[in-house]
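User: Please predict structures.

Assistant: First:
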Amino acid sequence: GDDHITEFGLEFDRLFREHLIAIYRLVDMDPPSDLFVPIISNKCNVPFLLKPRSSISPFINERKSSIFEWIGCGSVDESKLYSTMDRERGPIERIYYGHNDKAIFVALEGDISFLKMSQLKLQVIVEKTGEDFQFSFSMDAPYIHEDIQVVIDKRVELALPKSHFKDHTTVHLRFEIVKGNEIIQMMPGFGALFIDLEETYADNWFV
């Protein structure tokens, strides 16, 4: 799997840099020193967390939200965390998340057919708010109730209205996939997803 891509990437990276160095030398210029440093470094440095870059407003209901509605969202690559932290592989491989002024949005990608199997629940745990609370959703049917929406199609998508977080400006979220009393997967693998509800992303707009 990954190793093959990384090897190919490293090889491509080396050839690409060598070509550029050759071009600089052809025109009698000194190649910039960073051309001698691989662009793609080894696996450990691959980031598994990308923070959101803009506000998102995906339309979550029975109709699938378009992937374009998630542009600018943050993501967590859980599958990278399995390999680096030597953890048991879980059904969810990627988490996408973001928010707008009304709600927090999360999408979970992975082995969704496994999730739709009987008796699995998704627990969303909100931490560090004084009194931690959690939502629990059955994975075999969509859930739409008081603005909380959970839809399961090719992936799991949920919307949590900000009203649930009272006047908290930051939210720490954890997710668990549970079967009976057994936790099948806890996400994110590094602890909790940190969301700054006051982040407006204004600095990221290029005018």
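Second:
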Amino acid sequence: MNKIPEPSIPWHVYILRCADNTFYTGIAKDLARRISEHHSGTGAKYTRGRGPVTLVYQEKAEDLGSALRREREIKKLTAAKKKMLVVS
């Protein structure tokens, strides 16, 4: 019996702007839940004490590997280039 593959839930690569005007880049499958974690202080250590945070950029990735590679690319960008990405 052939199983019909379930549609995969996409990963999201996202950038948050913290209250101190710095950026945080991360990945998540459930973006709304992850942002809620950042707001409640249970998200990343970096965002604790830098809230509130605002979602300023997001893109979908096909799988975990793609999401991790894209996250790494974005984290290597200068703050100025991240601002350009956020604006576009």
